[in-house]
Amino acid sequence: MILYGAISYVMLFLSLVIYRRRLSTESLVLSNKKEQIKEYSIVIFSLIVLWVLTAFRSINIGNDTITYCRYFTNICNQGVNKTYAIEVGFQRLLLFIGRFTTNPHYFLIIYSTILYGLISFIIFRYSKDKLLSLFLTYFFCFGCFCSMLRQGLAMLICFIGYIQLKNNRKCLFILFVLLAACIHKSALLVLLLLLHKYIPKRSKYIIIGCLIALATSRSSLLLSISNLLGGEYSGYFETKYAGSGQVGTILLLIRAIMTYLIVHDINAEDDYPSYSLSHTNVVYLVFFLCCGFTVNLISRVSDYFLMFTIIDLPEIFHAKKEKRQLYIVLFAYIVVYNLLVLCFRPEWNHLYPYEFWKT
Questions:
Q1: Domain boundaries, position 160
Q2: Is 71 domain-assigned?
Q3: Distance CA 85, CA 271 (A)
Q4: What is this structure's pTM?
């Protein structure tokens, strides 16, 4: 717990030091090259620290790490097996990595490098506020990259597709989502973003939709939908995940609602042309969390839309005239993260107590 708390508060301190200077000038854009170099150095160093903690962790760290290491060993020895409850595309990726090493620890190093390489590329290429994106990456992605290896990669591929959709490149967006679906079928739900022009913007309709989602989570409809994605997902409705983790889901929902309010608060005079897409993204984020009260693993679907805010929130704060909400975000996210991972669900995430590589 000391490790995660230390990282959280050090990042918060560094963020507040830099943002205090920016807020004093009423601008979140760094014009001074020295300040830019300092910020870039902080971001690079922090990403390396997170990569080390992810790549050199024990196989006991992360909810599904042991399972994926076992899959890796079996696929290296026996090849692709279509009876496994994981997508063939992901199995072929494991088989490709197996050409370089059959050691599970080295597999984790290579896989973590792919994950952090992709998120680093996205941050440095597309973020308007790299420090804020780093901050969000820690609270959104660190636990994900330690636990959800398969979905984590699918989320990053969809993230690149989401950026293409923001640039109105719909065909590329669809291609990236289909590629991600080869790793994790749940990525197909990201295609719902194509409907962003038809999603109502008024809050009362969003509330009605969320109430419907809550009601649906108590019915058998979600089970029927999961059967369309494959039998491996419908099995969750009969496991320990059914009806559990509701406190964690409530905390995630609070965070999602706060994110929605920030996006919804964009004024007509703010220069933010991607409002429709970003608004739809956070609507889906809240909606799928509302569906997660029956089986908490359904809330993992919302992680796709949560990850996209790593780019969206910096763009929004860049466009908004009022910058003070940024402090609320920094404090609220760190509180939710610590309550969620360190207090209520440490055993679920298997992040605590942390262990380095054991031979």
A1: 2-349
A2: yes
A3: 46
A4: 0.85
